[in-house]
Amino acid sequence: MFFRNLTLFRFSPAVAADLDRLEEALGGHRLRPCGPLELSTRGFVPPVGRGEEAALIHSVNACTWVSVGGEDKLLPAAVVNDELQRRVRKIAEEEGRKVGGRERKRLKEDLLNELLPRAFVRSSRLSAYVDRKHGWLVLDTASRKSAENALTQLREALGSFPAVPLAPEEGPRVLMTDWLATGRLPGGLALGDECELRDPASNAGAIAKCRRQDLDAEEVKEHLRNGKQVFQLGLVFDDRMSFVLGEDLVVRKLKFLDVVTEELGDSHEDAAAEADARFALFTLELERLLAKLEEWFGLPRPVDG
């Protein structure tokens, strides 16, 4: 269950105390199947196991894992529009008149009512966990929209969940540009093998993307001398995990290195025991990384009141 991406929010100790009722709150917001005339549904699904009897939360120490599930009808707009045009032409040919805007809208609604019950359904899930001790909400996505949608589901279930986006006191772009330019990185942190550099003066400015590249190379330094800044930077933390950190402080391409995965072993009694072990190891490793992000970029936890 190791996450591949991390979008982060923070919450206060008072909010953490309110999360004691999370399991009860999610119970009334399970994912239900799409109805015949629904385009999509959202709700919570068990992070471990399947079925109505499976729990909607999985907790280890102060961290609680939840999953937001979704069902979406696959009804391509091109298919709908082609069939709508066919029906409009048929009316024009058989009745000798043009179809007005209001009638076209009604025809489209009728068409959707016909097609939706027969559409394929695509299932999805987005995992997240809350660290009540340190005030982090961690979502396994690099998409701000997907993260906000999942947060909305949590807020609807709880009635209120004032988790806030990160507000760094140190500019991530400036700080990461200095790391790359000088090679002076915080202890335990090393450069990876990719970066994205942009001219910050213009949205249409030049972009340089490096993959599988020695970031100490002269050609990378030349981009920096020409005014480009770091928008994404590959990093390795304590020789235990690698990732790409964005100037939005979204962690992408997170990968635990062999030294971490080897600690899991393969002697777990059952799937639940394995899930416990993986989640405990994962959250413990991330606890150290998130503490360092807080230190490097100035990400104070919100205070109560």
From TrEMBL:
Swiss-Prot/TrEMBL keywords: Cytoplasm, DNA recombination
Gene behind the chain: rdgC
KW Cytoplasm (keyword) present: yes
Name of the protein in question: Recombination-associated protein RdgC
InterPro entries: RdgC
Family from the record: Belongs to the RdgC family.
A single BP term in Gene Ontology: regulation of DNA recombination
Gene Ontology CC annotation, any one: cytoplasm
Protein source organism: Fulvimonas soli
Top-level taxon of origin: Bacteria
NCBIfam families: PRK00321.1-5
Compartment annotation: Cytoplasm, Nucleoid
Main location per the UniProt record: cytoplasm
Role noted for this protein: May be involved in recombination.
Any one GO molecular-function label of the UniProt entry: double-stranded DNA binding
